[in-house]
Amino acid sequence: MPITEKRILKRLYVVAGGLFLFAGVVLFKLVSIQMVHGDKYKKLAMKRTERMFTIAPNRGNLYSDDGSLLATSVSRYTVRFDAVTVNDKDFEEHVKPLSEALAKLTGKTSSHFQQLLRKAKVNKNRYTLLARNLDYSDYMAVKDFPLLNMGPYKGGLILEQKTVREHPLGKIAERSVGYERKDENGYYTRVGLEGAFGQYLRGVEGKRLKQKIAKGQWKPIGLDNIVEPKDGYDVYSTIDVNIQDIAHHALLGQLEKYKADHGTVIVMETKTGEIKAMANLGMTKDGKYYERLNYAIGESHEPGSTFKLMSIVAALEDEVIDTSSVVDTEKGYWKIYKHRVKDSKPGGYGKISMAKAFEVSSNTAFAKTIHNGYKEHPSKYVDRLLEMNLGTELGLPIKGEGKPVIRSPGDKGWSGLSLAQMAYGYEVSMTPLQILTFYNAIANDGEMVKPRMIKEVKEWNRTVLRFKKDVINPSICSKETASKVKQLLKNVVEKEHGTGHRLYSPNFSMAGKTGTAQKNYVSKDPDKLKYISTFAGYFPAENPKYSCIVVIHEPDKGVGYYGADVSGPVFKSIAQKVYANNPLIDEVEFLKESKGKWNKSHQDYFAEAQKKYNKVPNVKGMSGMDAISILENLGIKVEVHGNGKVKRQSISQGTDIDKVDKIVLELS
Amino acid sequence: MKKGILDVLKVKFLVSGDSPKNWLFIIFVSFLATVMIGSSHNADKKVHQIAALNEEVKELRSEFVDLRSDVQRLKLESTITKIVKEKGLKPSETPPKKIKVKTSKD
Question: What angle do CA A361, A366, A370 make, to 5 degrees?
Answer without folding.
Answer: 160
